[in-house]
Amino acid sequence: MVITFGEMMMRLSPPDFQRFEQANTLEIIFGGCESNVAVALANWEMPASHVTRFPSNPLGKAAKQFLDKNGVHTSFIQLQGERLGLYFLENGVAMRAGRIVYDRYHSAFAEIEVGAFDWEQIFESAKWFHWSGITPALSENCAKECLRALEVAKQKNVFVSADIYYRSNLWKYGKKPQEVMPELVQYCDLVLANEQNLEEIFGIKMEKTANPFVSSASKMIEKYPKIKKVVDTERISISASHNQIKAKMFNGKDFLETEYQEINPIVDRIGGGDAFMAGLIYGLLSYQDDQKALDFGICASALKHTIEGDTNLATVAEIENLMRGDASGRLKR
Amino acid sequence: MVITFGEMMMRLSPPDFQRFEQANTLEIIFGGCESNVAVALANWEMPASHVTRFPSNPLGKAAKQFLDKNGVHTSFIQLQGERLGLYFLENGVAMRAGRIVYDRYHSAFAEIEVGAFDWEQIFESAKWFHWSGITPALSENCAKECLRALEVAKQKNVFVSADIYYRSNLWKYGKKPQEVMPELVQYCDLVLANEQNLEEIFGIKMEKTANPFVSSASKMIEKYPKIKKVVDTERISISASHNQIKAKMFNGKDFLETEYQEINPIVDRIGGGDAFMAGLIYGLLSYQDDQKALDFGICASALKHTIEGDTNLATVAEIENLMRGDASGRLKR
Amino acid sequence: MVITFGEMMMRLSPPDFQRFEQANTLEIIFGGCESNVAVALANWEMPASHVTRFPSNPLGKAAKQFLDKNGVHTSFIQLQGERLGLYFLENGVAMRAGRIVYDRYHSAFAEIEVGAFDWEQIFESAKWFHWSGITPALSENCAKECLRALEVAKQKNVFVSADIYYRSNLWKYGKKPQEVMPELVQYCDLVLANEQNLEEIFGIKMEKTANPFVSSASKMIEKYPKIKKVVDTERISISASHNQIKAKMFNGKDFLETEYQEINPIVDRIGGGDAFMAGLIYGLLSYQDDQKALDFGICASALKHTIEGDTNLATVAEIENLMRGDASGRLKR
Amino acid sequence: MVITFGEMMMRLSPPDFQRFEQANTLEIIFGGCESNVAVALANWEMPASHVTRFPSNPLGKAAKQFLDKNGVHTSFIQLQGERLGLYFLENGVAMRAGRIVYDRYHSAFAEIEVGAFDWEQIFESAKWFHWSGITPALSENCAKECLRALEVAKQKNVFVSADIYYRSNLWKYGKKPQEVMPELVQYCDLVLANEQNLEEIFGIKMEKTANPFVSSASKMIEKYPKIKKVVDTERISISASHNQIKAKMFNGKDFLETEYQEINPIVDRIGGGDAFMAGLIYGLLSYQDDQKALDFGICASALKHTIEGDTNLATVAEIENLMRGDASGRLKR
Amino acid sequence: MVITFGEMMMRLSPPDFQRFEQANTLEIIFGGCESNVAVALANWEMPASHVTRFPSNPLGKAAKQFLDKNGVHTSFIQLQGERLGLYFLENGVAMRAGRIVYDRYHSAFAEIEVGAFDWEQIFESAKWFHWSGITPALSENCAKECLRALEVAKQKNVFVSADIYYRSNLWKYGKKPQEVMPELVQYCDLVLANEQNLEEIFGIKMEKTANPFVSSASKMIEKYPKIKKVVDTERISISASHNQIKAKMFNGKDFLETEYQEINPIVDRIGGGDAFMAGLIYGLLSYQDDQKALDFGICASALKHTIEGDTNLATVAEIENLMRGDASGRLKR
Amino acid sequence: MVITFGEMMMRLSPPDFQRFEQANTLEIIFGGCESNVAVALANWEMPASHVTRFPSNPLGKAAKQFLDKNGVHTSFIQLQGERLGLYFLENGVAMRAGRIVYDRYHSAFAEIEVGAFDWEQIFESAKWFHWSGITPALSENCAKECLRALEVAKQKNVFVSADIYYRSNLWKYGKKPQEVMPELVQYCDLVLANEQNLEEIFGIKMEKTANPFVSSASKMIEKYPKIKKVVDTERISISASHNQIKAKMFNGKDFLETEYQEINPIVDRIGGGDAFMAGLIYGLLSYQDDQKALDFGICASALKHTIEGDTNLATVAEIENLMRGDASGRLKR
C-alpha cells in the first residue's frame, strides 16, 4: 500500500479556452499534489490510500467519491470541518498563459489539529509514504502533523518520498520553509527538487559545473544521509500548447536521464509533475531499475498532458507503448 | 439614486435538478440580498448604486461586470482583499428541498475595515438606502460600517429600508443580533420582518390577536419611532415546485395585504424576497400608493420565481400585467 | 401527396427558461406554420411536399436538410435569394409569458417574384393543398403567388385548406388583409378561423347566440360556397405551463367538438395550432369521419405541446392512445 | 452486508424531453433493478455488495467505477466477457409516455457460465440477499446461477427478498417464468409482487374480495411457507409528470399500508420501485417495525422520483422528514 | 446512381478529449465504411443510394434520418430486426491514441437472411457499386448477400469498387477472409488495398522492389483480370493530432501518386479512408483522369480530418481549392 | 475618452469546429470592427465610448449590456429601429477555412437617418475618434453621418484614426468606395491600410520598390496632408490554425516594423486586426513612442487570437510580457 497525505481541492475551470470573465459554467474536477499520485497508482492497480480531511458537507462527500470512483482507499479520510479547498483554473493556449486563483485557506484540511490522524494504524500495511512541500506550507498544524507522520513512517521502515514543492506565496501563516522543511526532509528516501529549491530551502549552493544538478543532489545526499535518490524534471515551454519534458535522477552513484517527450497539443498541463512522481513510484516498485522507472515516470507525465483533469488516467499499456518509442497516436480498434 | 450595501456572492449550482454529488459542471450566477434589489431597480430603469468590496482577482472582476451588465452603478465598489464569497445551491423540486452550502467567511467584504467607505460621497445624490440583517452578521467591522452608513444617511435625510433577515447560524463572530440590530434599526424608515423576528431580535412579544402582525408591527413602530412601515411576505409551500405568496404592510395606520400569487412551477426560488423588496421600493417611489406598491412588490416577486438566478429580470410591463390579474402566460409576439 | 406552401424560418431560443439577456447560446430549430403541417404528416407516413424558397447559403441548406431528415419531399424547394427568415423565441413558464422577436422581413421567401413556382407541376399528383394567412401578409408578391397557386389547385380539383392566421402587426407592406384575403379564401374547402377573424377580415358579424361560432361559420359558408368546413381550437391558458385545449367544427350541417385536453406541464407551445391542422388533415384523409378527425387533431395538438420544437413528432400510435382516453403517460418498455 | 445480484446496464438518454430522433447527445447513467437497491443502501451507510459481471473493456470499467463512487462493495464483480448491457430511455412528460429501447441481450452478465460466482465466499458476512425476476429471464445460465445462490443463501440463513418483476417480452431464451420462478421463490422470505403476478406466474387465483391483495398474499405464503411478507406498491398515473404512489404489505398476520405520496413534477421515474425495495430493506433492518419500514420505503421511492438517474440519492434525513409529513420542499440553508 | 452496401452504426463518443471513464454524455454520430462514401457523394450532388438494414425501433429510424438529411437515397433501406450496431469512440490527441470499442454483433444488418435485398431492382439505374471487406466479415449471410449483389452487378455492367478492409479480430463467425474474399474480389473493377492485405488475403507475395505496391498490384490485376485499378493511401502518423497522408494508384499501366497533405491539428480521423474512396469515385466519374481523381480523393480525405464525424462535409469548391495548393485556411467572408 | 462609431452585430457560431449543417446550437458573441476597439481599450482601463444604434428589442438590449459589462460607455447608444445586425461564423481549422454568412442589411444602424447623433456633445471630452470603412459601405446615410462626425471631430481637434477596410461585396447600396472614401479620409490623422487598398480606393499606384508599402504610404500622406501615420499588418497563413503576424508603420519619416508573432493554435481569428488597432491607440496614447506602440499593437493582436470572441480580453500585463519576448505560456499561479 502506498500512502499519500495532503489536501485535495475542488478545481473549477471555465470550459475550453474561456477566460474567467467569459465563463457561465465551471467544470468540476478534483486534484491535489499528493492525491494525484494516489489516483494514478490506483489506476495502475497498485494499492494506494490517501489521508486527508474533507468538510462534512455535500462538497466534501463529492470529493471523497472522486477518490472512491478512482479506486483509491479512503478509509483514513475524515469528513469534518468547515470548507473544502478550492482553486479556479483558466486554461492557457498558444502564447497565453493559464491562470490559477487559489481559494484554499481556512479549509478543513488546513485547519486540522495536531494528532488528527492515527499514523500507527495508517502505516500498518504501508510500504511507501509520499508527501509534498505544500502541506507544511498550509498551516503550522499541517507542518506538525507531517512531522508526526514522518516519525512513524521511519520507525515502521516505510520508504518516504517528498516533492519539495516551493512557491513563496504559499507560506502565509508566519513560518518560512527554511525553518520547517529541513527537519522534515531528513526522514526522506527520495526527493523531487531542482537546484534552485535545494539552494533556497536547504542552503545547498548551486555550482557552475557541467551538471549542476548532480553536484547539488550529491551534496543534498551528503547532508541528509537517509536520502538515496534526488530526481527532477525539465520542461521546455515553447508555448502553453507545446512543451518538451524530460526527467533526471542522481541515485547517489549514477546520473540518469530520459529523452525529451514532445507534447503538442497539451490538453491539460496540471498534475504533470504529480504524474511523473506516480510513474516513478510505480516504476521503482515494479521494475527495480532506476532508468526504467525514470522512463515510466516521464512517459506517464507526457501522457497526463493529453488528459483533462489533474490526474493521470493513462494505462500501463499506453505508457509502456510510449516507452518503446511509439508516439504515433495510431487508433486502437 | 437608490443605494444598496452588502455582500454579493458567486453562486455555483449543478444544472437542472442534479444533486451536488452528481454534478460535473456548476452554473455561475451572482447574487446577494441587497445587490439583488439594486439589479431589479436598474432593470426597471430606476438608478441604483451598489456599495461593496470584491477581491482584486478575476473573480472579483467578473462579479463587478455582472453589476455593470445589469446597469447598476459600480463606482463605489472596491476591488481589494482576498476572496470572493461563494455559495453552492442545489435546486429543489417537488417534495425535495433545495440545499445551500455557504462558503462566504473570510471574504473581501466580510473583512473590510471600519471606515472603508466614504458615505458622505456615496449618499450625495441618494434618496433611498437599503441594507439587510445579513451585513452586521458577517463580521464586527461589517456591523460597524453599517452603523456608519446609517448615521450619514440619517443626517442627509435619505429614506432607509432594512430587511431584518435572521438566520441564527449566520452570526458566528461572537456578537448576537440582539446586541447589534436594535441600534441599527432605529435609523430605519421601513422594515421587512415577521413577528418571530421582531420578538427574537427586538423583544416585541407576539400576541394572539386576530392579526398578530399588526400588533407586533405597531409596537415596533412605537419603540422605534423613525419606522413608518413594517412589511412582510407569507409563503405557502405546497412543494419546492409550487408555492403561493402574498405580502402585507402596516403603515402606522392601515393594514394592507395582497392577493395570493400562485407559482407553479417554480424555476428559481432564490431572491424571491429581494424581488419583493425591490418591487416595494419601486412602487413606493413610482406610485406614492402603499397598496399599489405592495401589489407591485408581490407581482415582481412572483415573476422572479420564473427566472433563473437571484435577480429579477421581469419588466415593469410584465409586472403591471400581472397586477391587472393576467397570469395566463400567453405568448407575446 | 399533401402540398404545403409558406415560409420556414430558423428559430433561435435560449435554453431552458433563460431570458434573452441571459443567453449565451441559442438552440436551433426550424419551423413555419405550413411546413409544420408537412413535417407532421410525413412523420405519420402520409406523403407531403413543402414548397418554399431558402437562400443559397449554408443556413438555407440546413433548413432544407431539416425537411429532408423529417421525410418531407423537397424537390420543389428553391435555393436562391439573400437571407433566411429568423425568429427568436424566449420560452414562457408559470405566469411569465413567452416572447417572440421576429426577424423575417427581406427573406428569400418574402422576396420571391410572381411566377416563381410551377404550380402545374407541383399539383400534378396532389390531393390536398394547405396554406395560411401568413403568406399573403409577407409581401405583395407572396400574396399574388398564393393566388396563382389557388387558381391552379382549383382547376386540378385539389382540396384546399387555409389557416386564416391573423396578426395585425404582420401586414407591413401596405395592403390590408381585408383587401387580400377574401379573394383567396373563395378557393378554399376548409378554413381554420375564429369568429373574431371572420368579423375582422371577412366582415361576418359575430352574433350573441348560444353558439356564435356556428352562426359565424354558417354565414361564412354561405358567403364563400366552396367552403365546406370551418374549424377552430379553444385554449384556456391557466399559465404558460398549463393549458387546456379543445377543437370544434361546423361542417355545414353539424356542430362537432372535442373534450378538453389538459396539458401540464407544457414543454413547447409553438406549433400547437399547426399540429391540430396536420392532425385534422390526417384524420379526414384516413378516417373519413369528421368527429374522429377532429379528435385526432386535438390529441395531436396536445401531444405536440410535450415536444421541443415547432413540429409534431408524436406517433400515430401515441395519438390514437390519447384518443382512447389514456393520458396516463405510463412508460412504454 | 446486503448482497444484491443482477445486471447493471449503461443507460443512455436524450437530454431533457427530447425524443430519440432529436437527440445529438445521450446522457450516461448506470442502473439495474438490483444494483439500484445496493446503491441506495450504500448511500444510507448500510453496507451493500453487488454481484455481477461487466465486460473487460472501458465501458465495463466505467460501470464498476459508478458503484465504487457510490460506496457499493465491488469485490465480487467480475470484469470479463464481451459487451455491456445497454438501454436507451426517452423521458416522458405530461400525457406523453416515456419509452425504453432495451439492448441487453448477449451481455457479459447474460452469458455467464453456471458456477461463475463463489456464493460460499460471497455470503460469508451477509445478512440479506436480494434478487429479482429479471435475472432468470435473461438466460438459462442466469436462472441456474440464481438457484445456486439461493441454495447457499438458505444454508447460511441469509434473509432473502425477491422482486417478482414480470414483463413477458423479457423471457426470450425458451423457458417461461412459470417453469422457472416457482422453484426459485421457495427460497424467499419476502416477495414484492402484485396479484396479477401471483396469478400469472404462481397460479394463485385472484379473488374478488374487498382486499384481493391480502387473499392472494396469504395464499402465496401458504404455498411457499418460507415467505413471511408480501409487499407491493400502487401507482396512480395522472400523467407522466404527476403520480401518486403508496405501498402495502401482508406480513402473514396484518395488512399494512401507507398514505399516498403526491409527486409533481416527476424528474425521473426509473428506479422508483427499486428505491421502495431499498427503503423497505433499510427500514426492516433499522426499525424492526413493519409499518415504519413500509413508510420509509414509500418515502424513499417518492423522493427518488425527484432525482435524475436510476438510483436514489435522497438522504435518510430527507426521507425521515417526509415520513413526518413535510412535503413542503422548503430550502435548507 | 452510386450504390453502397454495408452496415451503418451509431457512434457514441465522449466530448472533446475525455476518456470513456470521464464521460457523462456521449455525442451521437452515424457512420459506416460504405455509407460514409454515399454521404460524401450526396454532399457533392452525385446521386447515391445506401443499401442496409436498421432495426424497427427509434434508433433505427434516427439512423435512416441521418442519411435522409444528408441527401442519400434510402428507398432500399429496410427497417426490421433487433438492434442497431454501435461503436464507442474515444478521441486521441498528441501521443495518446484514440480507442474504439465495437458493439456491432447481433445487429439487424449482421443478421440479414440471404436474399434479403432485391439486387435486380437496386441496380436498375446504377452505374457504380461500392462495398468493403467489413461486410463479409460480419456474418456468413452477409458474405453470401455480398456475393449475390456482385453477381447481379456484373451482369448489369455496374462498375464495382471494393475497400479490402482487413482487421483479423473482425472475423468471428468461423470463416477466414482467405476463404471468402477471393471469390468476391473477382467481380471488382477497382480495389483499395495495401501490399500486406494482398499478401495475407490473396496470397500475393510482397517483393522487395523499389515500388513493392506496383509489383503487388500488377500481380493482383493478373490474378483477377476484371480489376483495372489498385489504389492505396499512406499515412505518416507524427501524433494523433498531426498526420501526413498521400495516395497512390496502379492502373494496369502507370503508377500515379499525390503529394503529401499535412493535417495539423486533426479534428476527427475516423472516415478518412472512406473520404478518399468517395473522392476517388467522384473524381473518376467527373474528370475521367486518374491523376485528378487521385488528387481529389486525397484532398477530400485531408479535409475530412478537419470535420467532426465519420462523414465528409467538405464542399467540391473547398476540395478543388486545396487541389490548387491552397492550404492556408483563410477566412471566407 | 476614445470615441468609436460603427455597427456591432450579434455573432452566432456553431460550437467547436462544427459546420453550419451540423449545428444544433449557436454560441452568442457580439462584435464589430469599431466596438472591438472600444472594448479592448476599456479592458485596459482607457475610457472608451461607442456610438451606435441597436433595435429597441431584447436583442438590442443584450447587445448594449455586452458593452456595459465590458466597461464601454454606452450613453450615446440609441435603442430604436427594427433589427440587430447578425453574422454567422463557422470556425476554420487546419486547411479548412472559416466561413462567415453576413445578415446585416436593414439593421437599425444601417437605417439611421442623417443627423441621428449629436456629435458636438459626443466629442465634448474626446481625444480620439476611430471609424472604419465598413460604416460608409452600409448605407448612404451611414456614409453621410460619418462625414458629419468627421467634420465635428476636426473642428474640435480630435485625433482621427480610420481602418480602411475594404471588401467589394459590402458596398451594395449603389455608391462605390472610390466615390465616398476620399472625402472621408482627408479628415484622418492615422490610417490602417495596405498598398492594394490605397491603389484601389485612392488611386495611389503601387510601385515595385524594395518597400512598396513605404512608397504608397508616403504618397498617401502627400495627397492627404492631415494623415501623419499609415500602418498595416501582415499575416502569413500557414493554416487556419497557425498564423504568423507582424505590423509596420510609416510615420512620414521612418519605416518601423515588428518581429513576427507565431500563433499556434489559433482559438479565434476574428477581431485580430481590431485588436491591433486598439493596441496601437493604447500604445500611442500611453508610450508616446511609435515603435513601442506598434509592438503593443501586434502583441495585443497575437494574444487576441487565443481568446474566444471578437474582442480582446488580454491584460496589459500579458501584452507587455509578450513584448518582452516571453511567449512561453507558463502557468501563472
UniProtKB/TrEMBL annotation, chains A, B, C, D, E, F:
The keyword Transferase applies. The keyword Kinase applies. InterPro entries: Carb_kinase_PfkB-like, PfkB_dom, Ribokinase-like. Belongs to the carbohydrate kinase PfkB family. This is 2-dehydro-3-deoxygluconokinase. Signal peptide: none annotated. GO terms for molecular function: kinase activity.
